Amino acid sequence: MNEMLMKLCEINGASGDESKIRDFIRKNITADDAFTDNLGNLIVFKKGKKTPKNKIMFAAHMDEVGLMITYADSDGFLRFGAVGGINPEVLLGRGFKLESGAYAVCATKAIHQQSSDERKRIPEIGELYLDIGASSREEAEQKAPLGSYAYFDADFFEFGDGFLKGKAIDDRAGCLIMMNMINGQPEYDAWYAFTVQEEIGTRGAAAAAFTVVPDIAFVLETTTACDIARVSGDKKVCELGKGAVVSYMDNGTLYDRGLYSLAMKTANENNIPVQTKTLIAGGNDSRAIHVSRSGVRTCAISVPCRYLHSPSCVIKTSDFDAVSALAEKMLSAAADI
After folding, report:
1. Which residues make beta-bridge pairs with 224?
2. Once rounded to an integer, what is the mean pLDDT over residues 305-332?
3. How far is CA 327 from CA 60, 157, 187, 267, in A?
4. pLDDT tens track for 60-95
5. Which of 56, 140, 151, 294 has its CA 20 to 30 A from that of 160?
6. What is the arithmetic mean of pLDDT over 321-328?
7. What is the DSSP letter of 128?
8. pLDDT at residue 122 is higher than 90
């Protein structure tokens, strides 16, 4: 699992630039039917041992957060905008790899040139720049054309007791779980949507759900875990090492209560570690899927993840395994409800 997840995470693919990750996934699955829609979603059908009463779809997004080059000044420094929700704190001093293959460093005004007020606050994205070692606008735009992407240049590694660190684990973890299901021997027929543009408004999921027209959808995601230093109680939201996260509500979706209860019951009956969120926060592709056409019964099952939308997303392998196990069990549990 670790090796394949590393390969998925190291492929760059921000919202609108998912072709490389989509091609990799397509080459590494064995499906009965697969096609790419006009928006870029990879939609897959896998025949199981039985045909369910309900049409079931699993979904995970391929895209990651990144930067888009918007301007090059006369000295060769680049301005950029965020593609997806990125806290400027995680950008300063980081290395980036541009779409062209060039490397860059993200920086801002030196501290000894900042006013006392500037030193007390985090700079906004508009105050940051990428240094690619260029000396002119022409050189900069040759290496980084306007509208091209920049990605975190980050190592993937294992540490501690089963912890994994890397960029884009949100949501390459969900993609890998679906790939494993497709390449396995599923009990029931199902559709699988590898979606695009989740990070900029769940746009791919809206198109995918409209095409597939599922009765039931399971969104396989990562979700913010705040079980870190100086955070306690409900502010932790969820915790690494405590299993799959099944959501009852977030900022985009009020989840199907029957599926929520069924997921919790199925996990407990099969000794799969499971937890829920202790705060109503975040959102995912469920936001678009559950209101598609005449409505879709929707459930989100997530891997808890620290430091989302940064070059250092952190998950635990035992939680990944729990989500994988629960997703497979839910395919059978929801087949005929």
Report:
1. 305
2. 97
3. 12, 25, 12, 10
4. 999 999 999 999 999 999 999 999 999 999 999 999
5. 151
6. 98
7. -
8. no
* b/e 187-199 (16+ beta carbons within 10 angstroms → b): ebbbbbbbbbbbb
Alpha-carbon torsion angle 214, 215, 218, 224, nearest 10: 100
Cβ distance 152 to 80 under 8 Å? no
Q: List the beta bridge partners of residue 43.
A: 35, 193
Q: Cα(86)–Cα(167) distance, rounded to whole angstroms? A: 13
Question: How far is the C-alpha of 196 from the C-alpha of 188, rounded, in Å?
Answer: 25
Q: Note the pLDDT tens digit of each residue in 154-184.
A: 999 999 999 999 999 999 999 999 999 999 9
Instruction: Catalytic residue, from 18, 198, 221, 239: name it.
Output: 198
198 annotated active-site? yes
Q: How far apart are CA 43 and CA 108, in angstroms?
A: 42
Residue 203: helix, strand or coil by DSSP? helix
* Dihedral angle, C-alpha 4, 10, 15, 21, nearest 10 °: -50
| Nearest residue to 177 via CA among 33, 275, 272, 60 | 60
pTM above 0.90, yes or no: yes
Helices within 116-198 (DSSP H only): 116-119, 137-143, 169-183
Range among 96-110, 117-131, 149-163 rated most confident: 149-163
- Distance between CA 221 and CA 50 in Å, rounded? 26
Q: What angle do CA 83, 89, 91 make, to 5 degrees?
A: 55
Is the separation of the CB atoms in 79 and 70 below 8 Å? yes
Give the model's confidence band at 289: pLDDT under 50 very low, under 70 low, under 90 confident, else very high: very high
CA distances from 308 to 84, 110, 135, 161, 225 (A): 11, 27, 34, 20, 9
Tokens 């459930």, located at residue = 299
CA-based R_g, the chain, Å: 21
